[in-house]
Amino acid sequence: MNMMGKIAPALPDLEPGHPCFDCAVRELAVCGVLEAAALRAFKSSGPTVHYKAGDTVVFEADEAANVYSLTAGLLRLSKLLPDGRRQIAGFLFPGDFLGITMEEEHAFTAEAVAPSTLCKFPRSRFDQMVASNPQLERRLYAVAAHELAAARQQLVLLGRKTATERVASFLLMISGRCTTRQGAEIDLPISRIDMADYLGLRIETVSREISALKVARVIQLTGRQTFRIIDRNRLDQLADGE
Fold it and tell me: Which pTM does this prediction carry?
C-alpha cells in the first residue's frame, strides 16, 4: 500500500496500439518503467479484471499467487483481529500494486471500495520480470522506501495524534493522492466507519471532527462522497497539532 505521493520516473515511449498506451496510471505503476517490448510481454501474461464495490480481490491468508496493478477504483486493506474486530491497514489507489510480498500468503484482505479495474499477473512471471529488468528492481526499491515511510507515518498517527490531527491528516492524504489543485473537488468513496477503523477512532468521533472542519470553513462537503479543501494551510496546521 502507498499512502504517500509517488515518484514519477522517466517513462519509455510507447507507440499507439501498444496495449498500455492509454494507461492512465503508467507513470505511477511499478511496471511503467519497463521498455515497450518488455511491458507488452508482461501485459500479455495476465488478464484485466473488474470488481464491483464490495467484492473481495484477495483474502487474508490466501496464497499470494498473483500480483495486481490497480488502474481504476479504490481498494481497502484490512485484517481481522483475534477478538473479531477489523483493523483497516490502508487503501490502494490507482497506480498501486497489490500482492508484492516476500511471504507465501497475503497478509491482508483486499476489497473494492468502489468499482475497480486491475491488471492481474502471475507472481512467478512478475518475479522473472524483476530479475531480468534492473529498472524494475530499482522502481520496487523506491516504492518499498515509500511504503516504509507510510508505515511509520501511520504508527505516529495512531499512537500520538489527537482525533482532530488524525482526521485532518487523513483528508490531506486523500487529497494528495487525488489532486494538487487548491479548491479542487476530491472524491472520497470511503465510509465514515472505514475512516474510523483506519484511524482508530469511533465513527461518532469521525463525524464530529468532519462537521467541525466544515463549520470552521476548512473543508466543504460538496456531495455524499466528495469534498473540497477550502483552507489547506489551516488543515496542514491542524494535522500538525497547531
Answer: 0.83
